[in-house]
Fold this sequence. Notes:
Layout: H1 2-15, E1 17-19, E2 23-26, E3 29-32, E4 35-39, E5 45-49, H2 64-68, H3 92-102, H4 106-111, E6 139-145, H5 150-163, E7 169-177, H6 186-192, E8 199-204, H7 209-220, E9 225-229, E10 233-235, H8 239-249, E11 253-262, E12 269-270, E13 276-280, E14 286-290, H9 293-299, E15 307-308, E16 317-320, H10 321-326, H11 340-350, E17 354-366, H12 379-394, H13 396-405, H14 407-412, H15 419-427, H16 433-440, E18 452-458, E19 463-466, E20 479-480, E21 482-485, E22 496-498, E23 504-506, E24 510-513, E25 523-529, E26 538-541, E27 546-549, E28 555-557, E29 568-571, E30 581-585
Parallel strand pairs: 6-7, 6-9, 7-8, 11-17
Antiparallel strand pairs: 1-4, 2-3, 4-5, 9-16, 10-17, 11-12, 13-14, 15-17, 18-19, 18-22, 18-30, 19-21, 20-25, 22-23, 23-24, 24-25, 25-29, 26-27, 28-29
Helix pairs in contact: 11-12, 12-13
Bound molecules: ligand LR7 and manganese (II) ion.
Amino acid sequence: PVIFLCLLLTIVFVWRRVEVGEDNIVGKHIFRKNQEEYIDRRGVHVVVGHYVGNPADKVPNATLEMINANNFAPEPNAGKDGFPVVIAPKDIIKMRQLFQINRFNLMASDRIPLNRTLPDVRKKKCKSMYQDYKEYPKSSVIIVYHNEAWSTLLRTVWSVINRSPREIMEEIILVDDASERDFLKKPLDDYVSTLPVKTRIIRNSERVGLVQARLQGARVAKGSVLVFLDAHCECTMGWLESMVSRINDDPTTIACPVIDIINDDTFAYVKSFELHWGAFNWLLQFRWYTLAGPALQKRAKDNTEPFVTPTMAGGLFAIDRQFFFNLGGYDEGLRVWGGENLELSFRAWQCGGRIEIVPCSHVGHLFRKSSPYSFPGGVGETLYSNLARVALVWMDEWGDFYFKFNNEARKIKNKQDVSSRLQLRSKLHCKNFKWYLDNVWPQHFFPSRARFFGRIRNLGENLCLIKPLGKETSNQPMGIAKLNQCLKEELLIEMFVMTREGFIMTDDSVCLDAPEKQVIGPMKVRIMACSGYSRQKWKYNKNTKQLVHVSNKLCLDVPSSRKYEDGLVLNSCNGSSTQKWELESVVWH
Ligand code: LR7
Ligand code: MN
């Protein structure tokens, strides 16, 4: 019966799959929709692919007039139910021209009504939960923006109005961070005055950055819950009650929605994986990881239960207003963009709060591949000084680790005055970063005093293990374990951590991995997402210098072909020099 069911599911799956990919040639322009759209196994509507014009086409720069114009011209059915917008081949050049303005498909966005419908992507059970929402505290929804498009900004606003219970909506607060667009001035004032939910606009004549802008909103907010959103989001049914319910239970919880994807080309609404949680890598870049192991098993009982996350993405969350200010609001030394999500996450956890992802809350965010606006002071300078502040205030010796390997941040760290934030840390009696790593993120891949950290050198070949850069994506880093020249400089690409449990891990949560049982043919060793399973457990023998795979007792070795592109292998332990490895510690703190 199981096989039959699988077969049936496959048939249903294939049958419901509609291929809409096609190539059109219009004159000399190739228009490739290159897009596939289907209902997946979970019944969720998925759209993949992008509009690809002919790369050879000359696309003129967007004119100033185009930049300042509001060309919102809705077509009643465009983007309905979160479906993708289809652009006709004749419009492709214009589409690409408009794309430059906001780094998303403005033409598509401008065709979608502000109150478009979206699928209800929640788990069924979510729909009957939160029946007592009328008892919850009221929210002020704060949306900050710099030069946002009319259609994305107001679709965000309308999705809040249409899908939040009026009883728990205090107000919407728009904070304009010195936008230059004409249509965001008087026309927006006039429009906002007609909305059915009280909406106010705070304006800045100088660029203050997103942290200051959010603080301005928070200071005037009347609701006892603050809900922050980016200016290009779309909320779905139940998004607000499910988050506020957690804050109602425990006002020291920061609640985050599951962040779905609004495709930057087609504006399709794509449900994303519910079991992602947020952390960061050695460069302090925010990263999603997947729930696994015991945490996942615990959820099997009830997958609508909120789960903890070490950090949040930053843009979309709900927080008790009192708690937010008691915790120190935001670090006002953070400029323009970046780092504030880690800063608030560390502070929340270390100073007595917690962060959770609420699976019944789904909000779409328009993800872009690049940023459309200027960074006064320079992108690098801004981002690195923000991250330097985070490291200096919250990360203790892991801050030293960050600065050791990040020259840019190290150069500007002394320019930062973080004394008031250090005072806050001691005033709030916050725990240290070791506590955070041990308790909030026990699966982390950072070095610690109880772990080996450094190079892994093969003595036979005098080459070092490196983290493969090849076929990896941000979601699924994996590849073949390779050797390379041992570098004179200490670079992260050659740095590994070996834990007490025997996991050999490196940045972005990837681990040295090999099959558990002997197979026919070469036993290939890979670098794969860390799983915590025994196939990733190793034992280092200091005397023989062998790295032994714990479950099959074979030794890490160089392939007999000596072709390092093929990666490493496991062989029976035979004392050969290619099976000897030196674990060379590097001081990181
Ligand atoms: O100077 C500025 N002033 C602003 O008002 C720069 C930006 N902004 C506004 C901007 O218009 C937008 O509404 O701030 C908001 C965030 O800027 P985005 O949309 O350019 O940022 P992002 O979505 O690329 O970046 C993510 O990281 C940021 C780091 O500072 C913020 O935390 C964003 O809120 C955050 N977005 C999300 O978390 C959405 C989900 C992304 C993921 C994962
Ligand atoms: Mn954003």
